[in-house]
Specification:
alpha/beta; TIM Barrel; about 15% strand; binds pyridoxine-5'-phosphate
Length: about 240
Amino acid sequence: MPKLAVNVDHIATIRQARLAKEPDPVHAAFLAELAGASGIIVHLREDRRHIQDRDVKLLKQTIKTKLHLEMAATDEMQKIALDIRPYMVCLVPEKRQELTTEGGLDAASKIDFLKGFLAPIKEAGIKTSLFIDADEIQIEAAKKIGSEYIEIHTGHFADATDDLSIRNELKKILKAIKIAQDLKLKVNLGHGLNYENIWAFSKVHGICEYSIGHSIVARAALVGMERAVRDMVEIISTFVD
Ligand code: PXP
């Protein structure tokens, strides 16, 4: 069965809005796990706008599932990953001005650099993933880099507003999944997925994990974290393997 990994960044966004102590992403992770999440994701951004170093350390110590660390390919982040040793590192592009990650990593333009960057992380026994667009060139680059996983960016699909664009974006993702699977890459999906649009993937085989943050935290603000996560787990549990 495909799994759900819950991104708790926006619990920290609420906390940082007041530079307060609550809500605590560690508490949110605990509730997400009780509700059936298979993993917890945090993006430690260079500008520390939401998740803080303390959160990552405490989550590693306290969660019972798997910690996924999203990060930019910088020396600072590499050091933190090697120190904290999450279950998985997912490399993402990062721009200070963006509201959220806006697109996939351009892995194809830095194959040698990313291979070298990931080498000590892999050596430390940490799984690796690259957040990339649904693009054959990027998928082939991920294979050359030697990442075990890729996460295909579903944001363009999620942002599409008319039927034709939605269909076209979905087609691109489905084609990308097939290319990746033929190359024996493990495939996760994420960005912009919510309780409605995720149904588009219900009959797609071989997805390892869905990485979802905003829609779950948004629902959690109204109905609570456990209920919001459980609602998503229930949907994903009906999907094909
Ligand atoms: N995957 C990656 C690589 C991301 O950067 C994000 C956003 O932090 C997500 C998944 C989750 O996206 P959303 O918050 O839109 O569910």
